[in-house]
Specification:
With 377 residues, the chain is an alpha/beta fold. The protein is 32% helix and 17% strand. The longest helix is centred in the middle third of the chain and has 16 residues.
């Protein structure tokens, strides 16, 4: 058994850092493990302009302090996005990519795209300048079963998109199905996909284990075990088309534990450990550095990081929440996974407490600690 692994410092190619007090509470967890991160733009209001991206980047840098971390900003696409503004933001180095949310597909996506066919000028511009298009790949037709919406998107939207724009760089975000994994692996197209730790570690049974489990709810929603296994095979395959994207998505406790709970799993504090568990279980530790540290950078055309991260097997204390919060009861991940309902009481005077429910890591469980060695680029 390998008890120590050193890899090039990794990047997170899909993360939600939120804003305000939440940003201040969570940003350091991403900056501790990753040299760079693609920052999702679905704030309220969304990041739709150069000025908004520059201002948000400034707030992120303030939140991470002196950490060696580079936030890579994205532009939130709407039906009215100006391709001239997009191109200027990309050529000036403000935008690294743009994000397509189908309207109402997920958190803060009400301003998203209602019909991709209306984005002809934008898509032609992206293809011409080589700017990546990052896609939340689900249809929003309520007549489509929620567990089928990614597969239907691949068939109805993604297939004609790659046909009509053969040079468009695409990242299909947080894939969850065998159909998406196969499409990305086999397409004769510049396409790649990010994969989250939760979609590698748990399936949809986790949503209903002894009761309704809000901390296992994310979008795209967890799928059947057959799909989880297909996504795991893609992640550990060594294919440069698949790379790390945590989709870490923090919420205050009350926004998860409510009659209409928000989608999202906050996994940033132990993201690398969770991914490494999968590669360890699959006998693919030799593929981990590529997945975590190389494939994404190469797809985006960015230099590889110079620093290293060393992971050492040992006992890790996994908290039930981070930050300060209103007096609440929060279920531990141990209870979520076992159905035992163990609980941890959190008391504070402040309102911001992002919930932490980590797939596959129980409080006090044995994991791989992370130590950052050297300087990240």
């Amino acid at each position: 058994m390998t008890d120590r692994l050193t890899i090039r410092r990794p990047d997170d190619w899909h993360v939600h850092l939120r804003d305000g007090a939440m940003l201040e509470a969570v940003a350091g967890h991403t900056a501790r493990q990753f040299a760079r991160a693609i920052i999702m733009p679905n704030l309220t209001p969304p990041v739709t302009s150069i000025a908004a991206a520059q201002a948000y980047r400034g707030r992120i840098m303030t939140a991470v302090g002196d950490a060696a971390f580079a936030p890579l900003m994205t532009c939130y696409l709407t039906d009215g996005t100006d391709p001239v503004e997009l191109e200027r933001g990309y050529t000036e180095g403000v935008f690294t990519a743009c994000k397509l949310y189908p309207a109402h597909a997920t958190t803060n996506s009400a301003h998203g795209v209602t019909d991709i066919r209306a984005l002809t000028a934008v898509l032609e511009t992206l293809q011409r300048i080589g700017m990546p298009l990052l896609i939340h790949g689900e249809v929003t037709d309520k007549s489509i079963d929620i567990f089928d919406r990614e597969a239907v998107f691949v068939e109805r939207v993604l297939t004609p998109l790659v046909r009509d724009y053969p040079g468009l760089k695409i990242v299909l975000e947080h894939i969850t199905t065998a159909e998406a994994a196969a499409f990305v692996a086999e397409a004769d197209h510049p396409i790649a996909a990010t994969i989250t730790p939760q979609h590698l570690l748990i399936n949809r049974n986790a949503l209903f284990d002894g009761g309704l489990r809000p901390h296992a709810y994310c979008l795209p929603v967890l799928k059947r075990e057959t799909h989880r296994q297909a996504v795991r095979r893609a992640a550990v395959s060594g294919s440069p088309r698949f790379f790390l994207g945590t989709d870490s998505a923090p919420h205050v406790v009350g926004a998860k534990e409510s009659g209409c709970g928000c989608a999202g799993i906050f996994n940033a504090p132990f993201a690398l450990e969770a991914y490494l568990r999968v590669f360890d279980e699959e006998g693919a530790l030799d593929k981990f550095e590529g997945f975590a540290s190389e494939h994404g950078a190469r797809f985006y055309g960015l230099p590889l990081n110079e620093g290293t991260v060393t992971l050492v097997r040992g006992d890790a204390e996994v908290p039930t929440s981070i930050g300060a919060g209103i007096r609440r009861w929060c279920r531990s991940w141990r209870g979520l996974m076992s159905g035992g309902g163990s609980r941890s009481k959190i008391t504070s005077d402040r309102s911001m407490s992002p919930t932490f429910r980590h797939p596959g890591l129980d409080p006090g469980s044995r994991a791989m600690h992370v130590g950052v060695c050297g300087s990240g680029s």
